[in-house]
Design goal:
Elements lengths: L1 H22 L16 H15 L4 H23 L8 H9 L2 H19 L5 H32 L14 H20 L1 H4 L1
Helix pairs in contact: 1-6, 5-7, 6-7
Length: 196
Amino acid sequence: MQCVGVISAVLVMAPILNLLLEAYGIGVPTADKPNSLLAPQATLMASVAQGVFKGGLPWGMVAIGAGIGIAIIIVDEVLKARGASVRAPVLAVAVGIYLPLELAVPIFAGGLIAHAAGRAGSSDELSLRHGMLFAAGLITGEALIGILMAVPIVLTGNADVFSVPESIRQGGLVGLAVIAAVSFALYRVAISRLDD
């Protein structure tokens, strides 16, 4: 059964990755694709592997990172010992450090929404699952829309096929309104068990 899963993943992923590469570019931006899709985990792993095998790894920076990690663990243990309501898990802090800002901000906003839902009394497991499922659906939907949007970009050869005309100056406000509506919907879903 695992072979079926591997083969079906290869048959689906290869054309999708080629489509995304053609439409947006992946990894390091180039002159042809200046806004390529970021791959922070792959870039990090590739940099570490190349540094170790080619001997160019900046060990001083690795030592600084290890020192920061140890300091975060100490801070987290002190917070735990004092029974603080907040903690500093080293993995969460590390992910926040190396992810680009456009990924870290939505993660932080989701954490704020989860915190607000928890303060509203939605700390039971079922409510947390509803909020997590809704958030996972948003992430999956965004990924699927990104793939679907790549099709017209590749077919037309125009990366700006979905650009908003410059005459529409309220585009930013519309975007903020959509973010606010989605955030409110996520909050409502997370606390929905309170109303049942």
